[in-house]
Amino acid sequence: MSRLRQFLKRAAWAMLAIAIGFAIWLPLAHFVFKPNLADYRSPGGIPPAAMALARHHLELWSNPVSRAGEVRRMRASNAEWDFMGRTFFVLALANMALRDPAIEPKCLAAIDAIIDETIRLERQEGKFFFLMDYARGSEFAGKPDRSLFLDGEIAMMLGARRMVRERADYKPLLAERVAAIINSMQSGPVLSGESYPNECWMFCNTTALAALRLADALDGADHSGFFAKWLGTARAKLVHRDTGLLISSYTYDGTMLDGPEGSSIWWSSHCLVLIDPAFARDQYERAKREISADILGFGYAREWPRSWQGKHDIDSGPVIPIVEASAGSSGLAFVAAGAFDDDAYLTRLLTTLNFAAFPVRRDGAVRYSASNQVGDAAMLYALVQGPLWRKAMQKGAAR
Amino acid sequence: MKAKRLLKLVVPTGDWLSPKGFVSRAAVCVAALAIVHLLGWREYTSIISGTSPTGEPISLSTALPGMLYMAAWFAAVLVAPSLLIAAGVLRLARRRNENNTRGEDLG
């Protein structure tokens, strides 16, 4: 046999062996990273993985140097993340306090520090401080020109805090934000407020609706008529025809700017649980059908459904080619999977988190290198959510 | 001499097609991960979420360590175990082939 033939025969055997190696290993690899769900999610108490994440965040908020570094890293990409990281963390802390009364004082101290600093920064630096620079480019269509992004999430933080334990001086602050939200949304042609000039975002509008619901539960107001009108308008004008999913951004008059996006719909479906649970679940199921993905046991979420390809923006994070995995969408998919008790999808998402988010564990705390403070805070919220929404619904039902 | 040995390990040669070659390449994958890990490049994987690892806007010099870390990680956890299985498969196949040849010779 010639040397070349011998070499080719050896190469063919080697390639076949490699193919067999991959065929055996790749379908098994996810088992190495598959978590024990009980470490991440529990009906009562705080699951250990959530506690480890919370430790990292509490450390950040108690150490001005590390927090400044983290905030600088996020603001270099997007000033919004600095703001949203606060909201997710406050929501997580509120749920943790409701889950475990023993840690309530510590959680409330952190919540109050975050809320006070956020409001101070907004007053001191102005509304553009937590917005991306293009917000300065033009005028808001609605008047007064406020960003629903800021009002909605600050109202959400104030409401969450007061749902854990009343704080009298936060009551007028919440009332002021509620008035701003109602004014902004009710005066809009499609009952939506702007986050940026002539840009309404579904994420922000559904957050604002959930904040209104918390305020109703706390202060006895009733916005159910407005909720019904908003849902009617959304179903008629703000739903993407091919997928039935809520679009993610639109002009003040309701013209679509971006179709459905993972970085928006997962969160929106979670907020809508407080407004119309059946509609919220329908949105989640559609999003799961259109946007969730799974490769060999590793779950993730794409940013766009197959029927609509959007333009890449900062919210999506870099989208990994071919598999089309989006960090932004996948991060918020955790929240939705948790909200709708979809343990199977949550487990697959956690498997990917352990595999590709590069956890860093130190002194009982954990963070994810591939993520950032806002991503980790959303993850923490995903793992402890539940009690706050349940309490708001119970209070509402009792009335 | 050391460089020559290292080059032999990394660059495919005839030996690459043997079980031993597969095992040594798997070891290279793991060693590469150990090196980038010790260099602290895990922190740079924040580029996946579009976050600057340094606080400065993301550039090639800040993105490259993160990309290399990810490549080394995926090589170590996906490629290296596959190569080890491949080494076992190839070894079994060769042994079987040798036994058959010996059997034919005896026959």
Describe the structure in your own words.
The complex is a heterodimer of chains A (399) and B (107). By secondary structure, chain A is mainly α. Helix content of chain A is 62%, strand content 7%. Chain A has 15 helices and 9 strands. In chain A, the strands form 4 sheets. Chain A has a 3-stranded antiparallel β-sheet. In chain A, a hairpin with a 2-residue loop joins strand 8 and strand 9. The N and C termini of chain B lie far apart (47 Å). The relative contact order of chain B is 0.13. Chain B has 107 residues and is mostly helical. The chains are: A mainly alpha (399), B mainly alpha (107).
Class by alpha and beta content of chain B:
mainly alpha
Which whole number gives the mean pLDDT of chain B? 86
Largest sheet of chain A: 3 strands, antiparallel
SSE run of chain B: HHH
Order of helices and strands of chain A: HHHHHHHEHHEEHHEEEEHHEEHH
Distance between the termini of chain A: 90 Å
Oligomer: heterodimer
Strand order of the largest sheet of chain A: 1-2-3
Strand content of chain B: under 5%
Mean pLDDT of chain A: 94
Task: List the main descriptive attributes of the protein structure presented here.
heterodimer, A: 399 residues, mainly alpha, three-stranded antiparallel sheet, two-stranded antiparallel sheet, 9 strands, globular, B: 107 residues
